[in-house]
Amino acid sequence: MANLEQRLSKSALQLQPQDIFLFNAKANKIPGVINMTVGEPNFSTPDHIKQAAEQAIDSQPLRYTIPEGKPELTQVIADFLASKYQLHYQPESEIVTTIGVTEGVFTTLKSILEPGDEVLLPSPCFTIYEPDIRLNQGVPVIIDTSKTDFRLDPQVLQQTLAAHPQAKAIILNYPNNPTGVTYTREQLQPLVDILQQYDIFVISDEIYSELSYTTKHVSMAQLLPQQTILLNGLSKSHAMTGWRVGYICGPQKIMQHILHVHELVTTSISAPSQYAAQEALAHGLDDTLPMKADYQKRRDVLLQGLTQLGFKVTKPQGAFYMFAQIAPQLNQDDRQLAQELLAQEKLALLPGSFFGVGGAGYVRFSYAASMTAIEGALDRLHDYINKVS
User: Fold this and answer.
1) Which PROSITE patterns is this protein grouped with (predicted)?
2) CATH 1.10.3720.10 fits 47-283, yes or no
3) Which candidate in 131, 210, 240, 246 could, as Cys together with 233 as Cys, close a disulfide (CB 3.0–4.6 Å)?
């Protein structure tokens, strides 16, 4: 009998299961676990958004829409981006709705990469970027940011581009997962000055743009519009992870081709989700504010607690993650430490090394969890430290 597995594409065969999914699944099988791994708001989707979806289900035929999304939805996306971030996209030709930013990343890379194309990837970073690059036959060029406060240093970017002048793209994500770091306009401008000297796509994942605590979010698309492919969505801003609504924006000459790839990935995203998203962006501009205020309270409690326990933490400026350097008295192997905490204390944290180069020796906490969970996590961590010290 033929071994058809070996006839799969080499790119698919080389893919490994996502460590985050495996670890989270293991954690969720443990009764009484406190799970601080998941980047998912513990808030409910606002009622007016759910009601809009319910009304659409009851009264609309809910058939296929055009691949880029309902015209009413792409219009409110354009209006939202103009109002919030001074970005100006044509809704009929420069916006494509996607099954979350996850599809947006894949579709964008599929649209631009040829075999062997290099993609610059500041690290630590969200875990899908590197395998997505490889699956699309690209070559990741990892830039370790751990020595520059987890921001891409302009001098390092210049040196990297000098060594890789034909790089096809760079992926930026800010506010950042896993570190919570973001950029001010003054910090972005030197990067822009360098990137505009090269024919390079800037793939800017700004899914946490509404969760910027210390400064108003500035989009790379505002500073470098002709080179930027903007990715965003409603999962984090409106607690709509399960609705799977994202969008890609960029110059029309680029987006017309991205649309053609998107059409083959999915005919169109879920119609009820589109009605929900339309309501969220048209009438829920401030829905994020109470969640954001609560996240800041949780962040401050977690920061104080971890600092008292000996972890070195830079105060996150956005998103809802804390990337903590392991206290010196503990096992510095982040993967082993995470396994020990799970087994002994029923506390689930993600090893920093899951997020790539520069992450070893750290653990990531998600403070999208409740305040009760955060306080419980600190108690269990304290108990563990007392046992091993």
Assistant:
1) AA_TRANSFER_CLASS_1 (PS00105)
2) no
3) 246
